[in-house]
Write a structure and sequence with these properties.
Layout (H helix, E strand, L loop, with lengths): L1 H27 L25 H19 L7 H4 L3 H27 L7 H21 L4 E2 L5 E3 L7 E3 L3 E6 L2 H22 L5 H22 L18 H22 L8 H18 L6 H4 L1 H20 L9 H7 L4 H31 L1
Antiparallel strand pairs: 1-2, 3-4
Helix pairs in contact: 1-2, 1-8, 2-4, 2-8, 2-9, 4-5, 4-9, 5-6, 6-9, 6-11, 7-8, 7-9, 7-13, 8-9
């Protein structure tokens, strides 16, 4: 727990104090966010606000991960396999960094072209597929090599699984490794686009992501405390995952980094996360769902992202089939803006919805544990 707390604290401090530096640098580079001309009129006042702020909390998460591992070295009772960096960390941080890189390219093109078009849809889609495929393969083809004092293998789990999962793996829903990679690519695309669509108002996506990442930190730490690979854990009911402490450390670090960034991103925002941050967070959240074996729980944990994404899908289907719009504008947050709600009201109420989804998901996760322990 000490290492997780250290990672959260370091990430928060780095993000809190480095974000103003990023604001000055991106302002000097004239990396202002282009505003859609067909969007709500009140957004035109945000024109020129620096974007690509996601670089800060992605960097803060990586730095905090290193700090967390330094803290682990002060705990001699932990197994060395948990102290050393793992494939799990490579997958999770890789998803965050490289998904963020796809978003950075999109942001860079927006700034350079001075319009909101950025990277074309096909290019962004190919980037997401490539990132999901590469790290999906790594997650499924590199098992753990943890052993006990006698040399007996205590954990041969991979980061990902060939079975679909809800609270844990569902054995009846097993697929091939190729099928599992394809499913993970879909999860990456869904999560990155879900966070990206939510990132439309000051602090909305950042605050919602804090809740989701904090939930995964709790889930992963609970799994660590009830881990099948832990020789000191004697209860029959346990979690077959790989490196849960590593997952908790990274989730906590990312949540802390987002809180530090939110200080400057909340209304009125002095910097936007841009696609750099939105895609980076989405990639990490997808990795969290895979590594904690809770893929089918993700739509509940990220309920706000699902609702906002579905508002876009409904709008497109309705307009293409009937020529009519269901909402004044999609994503959903802009519908309420045009209905006269203030930006702060929308953000706070949507945060409440995000919190409800997280609470329901954590309740389901814990109730499943209680049901099997009684």
């Amino acid at each position: 727990m000490r290492a997780v707390i250290v990672a959260v604290g370091v990430a928060f401090i780095v993000s809190l104090f480095c974000t103003p530096i990023a604001i000055k640098v991106f302002t000097r580079l004239k990396a202002g966010q282009p505003i859609r001309t067909d969007g709500p009129a009140m957004h035109q006042g945000k024109k020129g606000t620096p974007t690509m702020g996601g670089v800060v909390f992605i960097l803060a998460t990586v730095i905090a991960y290193v700090a967390g591992h330094l803290a682990l070295t002060t705990l001699p009772d932990l197994q060395i396999a948990q102290v050393e960096p793992t494939i799990t960390a490579l997958v999770l941080l890789g998803l965050m960094v490289f998904s963020g890189a796809v978003g950075f390219l999109d942001d860079f093109l927006k700034v350079r072209k001075r319009n909101s078009a950025g990277l074309n849809k096909r290019g962004k889609l190919l980037g997401q597929i490539l990132v999901g495929a590469v790290f999906g393969v790594v997650a499924l083809y590199f098992p753990s090599t943890m052993t006990d004092a006698t040399g007996r293998a205590t954990n041969t789990e991979t980061v990902g699984s060939t079975t679909l999962s809800f609270i844990r793996d569902i054995d009846a829903l097993e697929v091939s490794k190729v099928g599992a990679v394809i499913i993970f690519i879909f999860v990456v695309m869904a999560a990155t686009n879900g966070v990206n669509l939510t990132d439309g108002l000051d602090g909305l996506a950042t605050g919602a992501s804090v809740m989701v990442l904090a939930a995964y930190a709790l889930i992963a730490f609970w799994q660590y405390r009830h881990w099948c690979a832990d020789p000191s854990y004697t209860q029959p009911y346990c979690y077959s995952v790989r490196d849960p402490l590593e997952i908790a450390l990274i989730a906590g670090a990312a949540a802390g980094a987002c809180v530090g960034f939110l200080w400057w991103n909340t209304s009125p925002a002095r910097i936007f996360m841009g696609d750099t941050g939105a895609l980076g967070l989405g990639g990490l959240i997808a990795g969290m769902a895979m590594s904690t074996r809770t893929i089918l729980l993700l739509p509940i944990i990220g309920g706000l992202f699902v609702i906002i994404t579905m508002s876009v899908v409904i709008q497109i289907i309705s307009f293409k089939t009937t020529g009519k719009r269901v909402f004044r504008m999609s994503p959903l947050q802009h519908h309420f803006e045009l209905a006269g709600w203030s930006e702060v009201n929308i953000v706070v109420r949507f945060w409440i919805i995000a919190g409800i989804g997280v609470a329901i998901a954590l309740g389901l996760f814990y109730s499943e544990f209680l049901a099997n322990m009684t």
